[in-house]
């Protein structure tokens, strides 16, 4: 029997056979102060549901007597009292649920007055000041905040004994650390709970750690290209609009991500050349992408890797059916890589007749709004 120390002997004494015993789910510890608990995993892995369980535990703990209140309180903040902070960037999730809901797939908990929404670390700082008696804070999707949030959380935790529970994506759809904020949250965490989900490919039931982004075009699954805009604000609902992404969890084998080699071998060097004043090569490639895809270097790269290579995967070429690929490339070069000036971007958009509305929305999503 495999079990934690002492537990195996106890179960054997009750007549259990020689079986593997896994650790049970523990109720939340409201006594231990100054923790920064990252709850990480792909979309659908139960990050927010983990927080909902803590909320339910707090309802039980709050019914305990004064002796429990004493050991669960530091500097006037009772860790049994939870305040839930929803990210404003994620406000479209679960639109049919009550405004005060700590919502997750399949259910929700009503938080009443113990819920707020924040856009950034400064909003969160104000909310913390307004609720000095709350000792446990659930800050949903903290990786969407500015980098300052990691140090705000650490300082409040260390100075006041507050506990922060941070259900958030750490890996983006590119299978990379989501952003600088995610990296700093990892650096400052005291506890990490990694969660997995079943791979959502119809022919697979492996564990999944990755969030997969794809588009639906005429009923076909079209994987997002590597240089697709990093942040696209929207809900969890399935979308048939080929401009709006869908998400699911996928294992390594079924997480398709075409265009990574092209991004670093071709697209980014073209952007670097443009940043030095020579826009012609980039303009020519974007014109091909927008007007004659099969003449583009992007098409040649994907064809070589996913059709002509030793392990053909034609599904990756479905990525080229998604609209506004040139606009996505510009967003990557301007908003993420900072390789193009605003005037250069406007000039390319005007010359090639690109979709201003789509590009403007994606730039705003990535906090680089620009009047096009």
Helicity, as a percent range: 25-40%
Total number of distinct structural domains:
4
What's the overall geometry?
A: globular
Sketch the major β-sheet.
7 strands, mixed
CATH superfamily of the largest domain: P-loop containing nucleotide triphosphate hydrolases
Would you identify the CATH architecture of the largest domain?
Answer: 3-Layer(aba) Sandwich
Radius of gyration over all CA atoms, rounded: 24 Å
Number of strands: 14
Which structural class fits the helix and strand makeup?
alpha/beta
Whole-Å distance between the termini? Answer: 66 Å
- Could you state the oligomeric state of the chains shown? single chain
Task: Describe the structure in your own words.
35% of the residues lie in helices and 18% in strands. With 372 residues, it is of the alpha/beta class. It has 4 domains: 25 residues, no CATH class; 165 residues, P-loop containing nucleotide triphosphate hydrolases (Rossmann fold, 3-Layer(aba) Sandwich); 53 residues, no CATH class; 106 residues, no CATH class. Strands 1, 2, 3, 6, 7, 8 and 9 form a 7-stranded mixed β-sheet that branches. Strand 12 and strand 13 form a beta hairpin. Helix 5 runs parallel beside helix 6 and helix 10 packs parallel to helix 12. The chain is globular, with a radius of gyration of 24 Å. The mean pLDDT is 91.
